[in-house]
Automatic annotation (TrEMBL), chain A:
<dbReference type="InterPro" id="IPR037171">
    <property type="entry name" value="NagB/RpiA_transferase-like"/>
</dbReference>
<dbReference type="InterPro" id="IPR004163">
    <property type="entry name" value="CoA_transf_BS"/>
</dbReference>
<keyword id="KW-0808">Transferase</keyword>
<protein>
    <submittedName>
        <fullName>CoA transferase subunit A</fullName>
    </submittedName>
</protein>
<comment type="similarity">
    <text>Belongs to the 3-oxoacid CoA-transferase subunit A family.</text>
</comment>
<dbReference type="GO" id="GO:0008410">
    <property type="term" value="F:CoA-transferase activity"/>
</dbReference>
<dbReference type="Pfam" id="PF01144">
    <property type="entry name" value="CoA_trans"/>
</dbReference>
<dbReference type="InterPro" id="IPR012792">
    <property type="entry name" value="3-oxoacid_CoA-transf_A"/>
</dbReference>
<dbReference type="InterPro" id="IPR004165">
    <property type="entry name" value="CoA_trans_fam_I"/>
</dbReference>
UniProtKB/TrEMBL annotation, chain B:
<dbReference type="GO" id="GO:0008410">
    <property type="term" value="F:CoA-transferase activity"/>
</dbReference>
<dbReference type="InterPro" id="IPR012791">
    <property type="entry name" value="3-oxoacid_CoA-transf_B"/>
</dbReference>
<protein>
    <submittedName>
        <fullName>CoA transferase subunit B</fullName>
    </submittedName>
</protein>
<dbReference type="Pfam" id="PF01144">
    <property type="entry name" value="CoA_trans"/>
</dbReference>
<comment type="similarity">
    <text>Belongs to the 3-oxoacid CoA-transferase subunit B family.</text>
</comment>
<dbReference type="InterPro" id="IPR037171">
    <property type="entry name" value="NagB/RpiA_transferase-like"/>
</dbReference>
<dbReference type="InterPro" id="IPR004165">
    <property type="entry name" value="CoA_trans_fam_I"/>
</dbReference>
<keyword id="KW-0808">Transferase</keyword>
Length: 234, 207
């Protein structure tokens, strides 16, 4: 089965419908599927629910889908870098479900692993626990969190082979593997598609079984906060 | 003289033991890395990295290498990378020995509030709720009072909680406090700060 597509738009063809639930990889602007987000903007698909740790920044990453009002609801842990997000949220145009970062990652991993729910001590005694089942194990309270299964996953990797085996680079791995796992269909954009057999099978970060479509392209890879130190004098 | 930011960070660094894996929050906690000295400390960044190095030299920034504060950083010879589910597995699983975090409020039973001010900016908890629930020891580093001069160390928190009864030790500009049964115990006073001054700046019960 052919997994490699020519453009991000082609890679999403036939997969999109209004009101769908999308899981997106990335942390801040690091390791985000830029080209697939652009293709979502172009498609005009709307009323989206998106599970993603952040929602980009104003005018970049998932922030582009806020500008076009294509997102109805976000599941995120941190949205502090985005003024338009805050405006839409406070005015009631956008729904927001805060998830602790580790809970969001585990909900994706669990959903992709056939685990419909799990107990965690994260959030016990806070607003996150409201309305959730509490169970005591060995003297400690835990809350029940549900696994996430998304209609579509969009992720970014460094390299892929044509069977969808993925390799990520440094901290750009972040939410991409769990986001990929939890989608009924997963589309990955990569910097390079390499010939089958050229990736070391022992060094594959995400096996191709989780990846249904692949597109290669050039990302901007914008840096959110450049921090440096002075070079020592020679 | 109360401690300044760097003195608070240096005091917090004394809490860390050789061989520990540690998570440092944003702000003063980040400065703690400058004061670990010869101790073998591995810093975790919860987006998915162990063995966090210093900021890169200008021109060496890598968009694929950032910390949990989204700042560009570098790797070390000991560095490993992993996905965010694995990262929070090690946090929730108690593998991280300590987290050093900032706070808006701490209560005498160890309740911590540091993620939200209702009606003002709502940014989100990020990984803070997972960290305080999971790591071995939670150390808060913050100013003893807010800008209005009111105590940030309270009988009960007024802001939404990050975690319930999770704080072990508080390091402020005035001294060091431990959460113990019945309230807080003064462990140490900053040089030149009297016990009366610390008591006057503390709303919580001191035992």
């Amino acid at each position: 089965m052919k997994k490699v597509y020519g453009t991000a738009g082609e890679a999403l063809e036939g997969l999109l419908q209004d009101g769908m639930f999308i899981a997106a990889g990335g942390f801040g602007l690091c390791g985000i599927p830029e080209l697939l987000i652009d293709a979502l903007v172009e498609s005009g698909v709307k009323d989206l629910t998106i599970a993603s740790n952040n929602c980009g920044v104003d005018g970049f990453g998932l922030g582009k889908l806020l500008d076009t009002r294509q997102i109805r609801k976000m599941l995120s842990s941190y949205v502090g870098e985005n003024a338009e997000f805050m405006r839409q949220y406070l005015s009631g145009e956008l729904e927001l479900e805060f998830n602790p970062q580790g809970t969001l990652a585990e909900r994706m991993r669990a959903g992709g692993s056939g685990i419909p729910g799990f107990y965690t001590k994260t959030g016990v005694g806070t607003v996150i626990a409201e309305g959730k089942e509490v169970k005591n194990f060995d003297g400690q309270d835990y809350i029940l969190e549900r696994g996430i299964v998304a209609d579509l996953s969009i992720v970014k990797a460094w390299k892929a082979d044509d069977t969808g085996n993925l390799v990520f680079r440094k901290t750009a791995r972040n939410f991409n593997p769990p986001a990929a796992m939890c989608g009924r269909v997963c589309v990955a954009e990569v910097e390079e598609i390499v010939p089958r057999g050229s990736l070391d099978p022992d060094m594959i970060h995400l096996p191709g079984i989780y990846v249904h479509r692949i597109v290669q392209g050039v990302q901007e890879k914008r840096i959110e906060k450049v921090t440096t130190r002075p070079r020592e004098e020679a | 003289m109360p401690w300044d930011r760097n003195q608070m960070a240096a005091r917090a660094a004394e809490e860390l033991e050789d061989g520990w894996y540690v998570n440092l929050g944003i702000g003063i906690p980040t400065l703690v890395a400058n004061y670990v000295g010869d101790k073998d400390i591995t810093l975790q960044s919860e987006n998915g990295m162990l063995g966090m190095g210093p900021f890169p030299y200008e021109g060496d920034e890598d968009p694929d290498l950032i910390n949990a504060g989204k700042q560009t950083i570098t790797e070390l010879s000991r560095t490993s990378y992993f996905d965010s589910a694995t990262s929070f597995g090690m946090i929730r699983g108690g593998k991280i020995a300590a987290a050093i975090l900032g706070a808006m409020e701490v209560a005498e039973n160890g309740d911590l509030a540091n993620w939200m001010i209702p009606g003002k900016l709502v940014k989100g908890m990020g990984g803070a709720m997972d960290l305080v629930a999971g790591v071995g020891r939670v150390i808060v580093v913050m100013d003893h009072t807010n800008k209005a001069g009111e105590s940030k160390i309270l009988r009960e928190c007024t802001l939404p909680l990050t975690g319930k009864a999770v704080v072990d030790r508080i390091i402020t500009n005035l001294g060091v406090l431990d959460v113990v049964p019945g309230g807080l115990r003064i462990v140490e006073l900053a040089e030149g700060v009297t016990e009366d001054e610390l008591r006057a700046a503390t709303e919580a019960t001191l035992v």
